[in-house]
Amino acid sequence: GEEVAQTPKHLVRGEGQKAKLYCAPIKGHSYVFWYQQVLKNEFKFLISFQNENVFDETGMPKERFSAKCLPNSPCSLEIQATKLEDSAVYFCASSRAGTTNEKLFFGSGTQLSVL
Amino acid sequence: DQQVKQNSPSLSVQEGRISILNCDYTNSMFDYFLWYKKYPAEGPTFLISISSIKDKNEDGRFTVFLNKSAKHLSLHIVPSQPGDSAVYFCAASPRNTGTASKLTFGTGTRLQVTL
Q: Do residue B34 and residue A4 have CB atoms under 8 angstroms apart?
């Protein structure tokens, strides 16, 4: 597709439940990025992929968070045993290349509410 | 430890006048700077960028200025239009160290263009 597609738009989970978010990058883009935006503040980088390989996972919480980009499937971000502080908007972005001056194209985000 | 700072949370400008949005950074490894615009319930969209080898980049009504010695950049919008009302995020990317395109964002400035 010609835009980054994120599903669902909204997700509500009780504390301790699992949450799974999906992202389909723009066709032809090799890099996928996940960002977390809490309370409309700064975007926190979580993880990036080059095709199906993890490129940079320095922002991923070590526990409870995992992500995958498998061939011919949307990328996914999964949170096991959600906590209240996981409530945020999760943005996915894609780019053609991973070079410094490559701009990112963002999806419209998934609003996760943990109650 | 906020490496990219936007100290003005909001700005109100009259239609037709100039809007100036400011951004400061602390990390001298940042090499490439971008401005993103964000409307409610949408993902950020790329607006304009500048490489550290330049001090100015212009695209239509939008100009970005970079002062490397001061670690400061600014976005000028002239003339401002009501459709420019949005949140503007400054972002920075380090030199290509293998973690390229991992953007560090500021907290955003909400621009309101009034009639």
A: no
